[in-house]
Design brief:
The complex is a heterodimer of chains A (about 260) and B (about 350). Chain A has about 260 residues and is mainly alpha-helical. Helix content of chain A is about 75%, strand content about 0%. The chains are: A mainly alpha (about 260), B alpha+beta (about 350).
Chain lengths: ~260, ~350
Amino acid sequence: MKRPWLWAASLAVYAFLYLPLAVVVLFSFNDSMLNAEWVGFTTRWYGKLLHDEDMLQAAANSLLIALVSSSIATVLGAMAGLAMHRYRPPWMPLLVLTPVAMPEILLGVSLLLFFRQVLDLSLGLFSILVAHITFSIGFVAVIVRGRLAGMDESIFEAARDLGATPWATFRRITLPLIMPALLAGFLMAFTLSIDDFVITFFVAGVGVNTLPLQIYSMIKVAVTPEVNAISTLLMALTLTLILIAARFAPDVLKGRS
Amino acid sequence: MALLEIRKLTRRFGALEAVKDVSLAIEAGEFFTLLGPSGCGKTTILRMIAGFDAPDEGEILLDGVSLAGVPPERRPLHTVFQSYALFPHMSVAGNIAFPLEMAGKPKDEIRRRVKETLALVHLEEKTESFPHELSGGQKQRVALARGLVNQPRLLLLDEPLGALDAKLRVEMQSELIALQREVGITFIFVTHSQQEALALSHRIAVMRDGRVEQLDEPDTLYSAPANRFVADFIGKINLLDVEVVASSKARLGLRAAGLGEIAATDPRPITVGERGAFALRPELVRVFGRRESADLKNRFEGTVRELLYLGDVTLYKVELADGCVIEAMMPNAAPGRAKFHEVGDVVTVCWRHDAGVYLRN
């Protein structure tokens, strides 16, 4: 092995990143109320989750919000991506992508102010949905635009030339060609939505809980094995979705826009 | 009535006039070529015919009906793009079926026509392949088949052979000619390659800076170019600045600076004292050794300065007494002899009195 110090350094970094996650997973199977020492293997914390009414309600909310917000964000984001590609307005990327780069806490505060002070909206499921759509659009738009950028522009002219109306061109040519990007964008938006804490915390109000909010309220008391179990499930879901997204749009994970 | 008529077409992009007052009439069944260097406006004209771009002035008529405001999908003409523009998510058969599906043809007719057209371009065994599995030449054939399958009134071809290698390009040229004869569809072909244009076309419009410089059949274009640009753009040519010193009954006396008098012909009435250019194709110039006799009116002594041996022919660059250089192309047709003259040989160049063309300034 060449350059052993380089290997050691990277190993240390990976350990730093993934050991805490591994500990959470490990202790979710620990047959003890305390996250202190390994007692024995059990799945009873997972069983207990199934009987926790608050937890189940929060999970249902999270799934609903993620499903609806990422669906709508995919449609709007695809439209933004198509518009950025086709008309290339110089101001548009800035406008669409700013929420992606904006600190979450800033976005959370500004959305809260906007909902309460400007719209006088009561906070709840609807405000969470709007907030999640807002920060997801940019991601979908970037993925769709990246897909279109690698394509021969004359394909779309060829379709028109061969007798397709603009709508038929979109349905038969554009849509199938950007489908992988749409799927990847949808999964990305879903992932972002289901584990978002900061923005949701600001715009949720009282009464509506999501999984991350629920976990947070639980650890205010103590990090119970139940928290470990639900975190492990959330982690597994997120990871699966990211892997599926990476399959459909490999360039997303490679960091090409 | 012409199939396609272009009347006083003008297209501006900002300050640039890409197409300036172009008028053309293209007949049914014709293989018509727009030829010119890049940026001459030929592709802009093609895009306006296809409907991707609209003229600022003038109009385009198909069968006497204006195409103004008609979107691309409702024009009975198809385009073969330089990049082929095949749909990457559709098979060869799917690509070719596309225009038929858009035209709402019944399923069994689509199947039959796709099959026939695939046979026309010799691609039967690639029916289920996808574009990324095809070679350049095969993609080219699919693009042609897709453009022809719905029997358009006109097929527009935008540098369709540009992306092929040299050998394949020559093969595809013969196929294009055969194909056009077989289907009888009018072709409008855009190219910057004068060789391609000469080989394929019934008529050629040579363009420069948005204007048509000359519109003629290939042999006329080659043997009687209308001006310096066309003469220089099409094939190799010697161009000499001359002054008319004698003119009577289609016979001209031209004086090239320092060279002496050249005998030429021109049916137009030309006044003595006029200045112009004398254009002479290298293959019409003979090169003789000093001891060989040449019974031609135009003969000048010179020295071979350079030669380019090309196998079947040799291109000689002969410097004449006054320093002007004439290029001559001679076939190497003697058994056992590779070429006739060497660099440094003193030779006589000569040509018939009707070999060259006088071009007015």
